Amino acid sequence: PAPILLADYTPPAYLIDTVHLDVDLRADGTVVTATLACVRNAGTAAAATNPPLVLDGEELETLEVAVDGQVLPASAYRIDAETLTIATVPARFTLRTKVRIQPDANTQLSGFYRSKDGYFTQCEAQGFRRITWFADRPDVMARFTVTLHADKAAYPVLLANGNPVGQGDEADGRHYATWEDPFKKPCYLFAMVAAKLDVLRDTFATASGRTVQLAIYVEPGKLDQCPHAMEALKKSMAWDERRFGLECDLDHYMIVAVGDFNMGAMENKGLNIFNTKYVLARPDVATDVDFENIDRVVAHEYFHNWTGNRVTCRDWFQLSLKEGLTVFRDQEFGADTHNRDVARIREVRGLRAAQFPEDAGPMAHPVRPASYIEINNFYTATVYEKGAEVVRMIQTLIGREAFRAGMDEYFRRHDGQAVTCDDFVAAMSAASGFDFTQFMRWYREPGTPRVTAASAYDAQARRYTLTFTQANPKASDNAPYLIPIRVALFDAQGQELEGHSRTLLLTETTQTFAFDNVASAPVPSLLRDFSAPVLLDYPYTPAELTLLLAAESDPFNAWEAGQRLATGLILEATAAIAAGRAPVWPESFTAAARTLLTGYEARGAAFVAEALTLPGEATLAELLDEVNPDALHAARNGLRRHLAEALHAEFAAAYAALAPTGPYAPSADQAGRRALRNVCLGYLLERDAPAERQRAQDQYAGADNMTDQFAALAALANANAAARPAREAALADFYQRWQGEALVVDKWLAVQAGSRLPDTLATVQRLTAHPAFDLSNPNKVYALLRTFGANLVRFHAADGSGYAFFAEQIKALDARNPQVASRLARCFDRWKKFDAGRQAHARAALESLRDHPGLSRDVGEIVMRALG
Ligand code: DPP
Ligand code: ZN
């Protein structure tokens, strides 16, 4: 298929002012009657030429097409695989179409589909065309009224966007409900639900004194897992009023949780539909990380109501306009409501594990892509997370106040419109006076810029200079980026030098910055708070990094110093192991880890937990030209084992001291203590000692919350050969206990698929046949298969067995759900970083996918790029 290009954008030939949908759910399918008030788009060049009406549709059985009440003969229109064309239409007219769709047969989970207790929708990006004929593009915004009819006993809850304006009984035990959305919206924000669900209700009083009715709908029996999400929703609403002056504009705000869902959640106007994973929580079934993720995702979807819904995207190339901005907003919310220090660390850890590899591989694309074959492939770490970094840099460049003024200006200019990333930046520029011309490169170019720093100290002149050089080989030219680099200087005693902490604006390919009145050669702390999404090289000595780890008051850069130290050791050890030599672990590193561990009260347990967690294998792999996954794995685990032995007493003491003292709460403070205690448990289990296994078994059996229970299970699931019986017993018990809780079963699958044990592939293969696994449920696929695909050492097995297994799973899945299959295919992205033997196996697997009959556009694009 031919790519779709940003450069080809043209405005719609027809606009649609209002939409009336009548949706009749019947045993033999759902009949959708759509009445559209259409009008030729006067503002376009084509308007004078009487252009044909071309609408999008997919898998629709068309029963009738009428213009202004006149049913058209079949000769008056043309239907092909994806479009309905009516050659001549008046300048203003009413189109009525009647189609039948088959939600029970919709395995793609895009459009209108069945899941367990009812029917749900997912329309972003292009699912609405699977419901009715429509101009399925975000710059066509219409006012919707929707009437649903269904069997009352089976589907007592009938929902759509907006306000309920009518309901009642109909013949044969059926009923109907009518909803009216007062806001114009693009059809990707359409939603409807017909299901049997329980509901938790609450209200929120807005700053201006309006009352919003809140409701969270879940499958029957799960109401006791909703209160956390409800609190998160109210916190988000209050936060957006405080921080951005943005108030909820709706009378009704509903969240519906569904177990079969391709993505995390969806911001449909007034009727969010969520993956159960980001709604349901109770201390015994959800971990601290789950609780925090629920806060973030509930906030994210709520924040979209302004950044995405009130102001939406002109076209899908602008996806980061809403996603980058909304991720930045949910990050800030998370930082304000949890722990700002570790929030930033985790964001960067995530960026390095997912976005940097993406930006270095075959799927590299700009934050605003210039072309795509399948838009669903571009809901990526680049559009979301790098997009959020770009927005964060804007705030860094102009300051928080001007950023807030820029947001105000953005809404003042564009409320109710479908706009571009340029429009957003223009509003920021207008509010601040800052010239973002050079900055726009961040939206335009793929790849991660590499910044190399060098320093010089002139004792006589008391002058210190930092020289930065930037490059991005993935970019289309050598022009420099505008890169904000936050810097501080430290003296040899670890004191921050007063007056020298600044944000440097790197605008040239090579640029030198001077610091005057510096009494002695300082240690620079560069890119504080990760002020730009770049790779930064500086020839730090281990002593300098150790000093920064201990002394830096910016938690991100303190953590970063520790990560740099560990990275250096692991990469050296990887080379040593590959060459048949034993790795060397310097005492200075052990001492630094000891200081952290024994000083956790002062530095914060959450921070120390992050600082004692070594960089992940995928992140480390990016730093190597050719990855030997076995050597890398052995090196990283060798360092863990070394620390476990050398600091055994300290780990044991911290483990004991951090024991819970009261009932569980998912608070930042408690979560930090649990995180550190469980990091300690993991290290303690690195020793082959029965007492350590017993410790994990005791924690597993005695835990009153999922965080601690699961951490013990995970430690056992990764433990060495001698722990096999304990491992198997814990896994069996866990499944036995939780088989009725789908989300907990997902954890059980994931912990096995992510295990470092050598026979993990065989386990995963066996689990694909287990009754707990279901290829048609995205959460199960992500838990078992995607986790395995991210298991660097096992997926990239030298004999190619991981690749061959994966290719077959992707083929089976692609026939049902191309979006999910395509996400699995992304696990091949980095295949060219491995040795020739592995590459040959990966190529064979990719070619077998490429040649697979009926391969979807989704997987096809990923495979073509990977092979390309
Ligand atoms: N727009 C959704 C989100 O990111 C994804 N479908 O919230
Ligand atoms: Zn989003």
Automatic annotation (TrEMBL):
The protein's Enzyme Commission number: 3.4.11.2
Cofactor list: Zn(2+)
UniProt keyword annotations, A-Z: Aminopeptidase, Hydrolase, Metal-binding, Metalloprotease, Protease, Zinc
UniProt KW Transcription keyword: no
GO biological process terms held by the UniProt record: proteolysis
Sequence ranges assigned to domain Peptidase M1 alanyl aminopeptidase C-terminal in this UniProt record: 543-867
UniProt domain Peptidase M1 membrane alanine aminopeptidase: residue ranges: 229-442
One Pfam assignment: DUF3458
Residue span(s) of domain Aminopeptidase N-like N-terminal: 66-189
Keyword Nucleotide-binding: no
Top-rank taxon, per record: Bacteria
One Gene Ontology term of the molecular function aspect: zinc ion binding
Catalyses which reaction(s): Release of an N-terminal amino acid, Xaa-|-Yaa- from a peptide, amide or arylamide. Xaa is preferably Ala, but may be most amino acids including Pro (slow action). When a terminal hydrophobic residue is followed by a prolyl residue, the two may be released as an intact Xaa-Pro dipeptide
Peptidase M1 alanyl aminopeptidase Ig-like fold domain span: 447-538
PANTHER family: PUROMYCIN-SENSITIVE AMINOPEPTIDASE
Function as written in the Swiss-Prot or TrEMBL entry: Aminopeptidase N is involved in the degradation of intracellular peptides generated by protein breakdown during normal growth as well as in response to nutrient starvation.
Recorded family membership: Belongs to the peptidase M1 family.
Classification via NCBIfam families: pepN_proteo
Protein's name according to its UniProt entry: Aminopeptidase N
Organism of derivation: Oryzomicrobium terrae
Taxonomic lineage of the native organism: Bacteria, Pseudomonadati, Pseudomonadota, Betaproteobacteria, Rhodocyclales
Gene: pepN
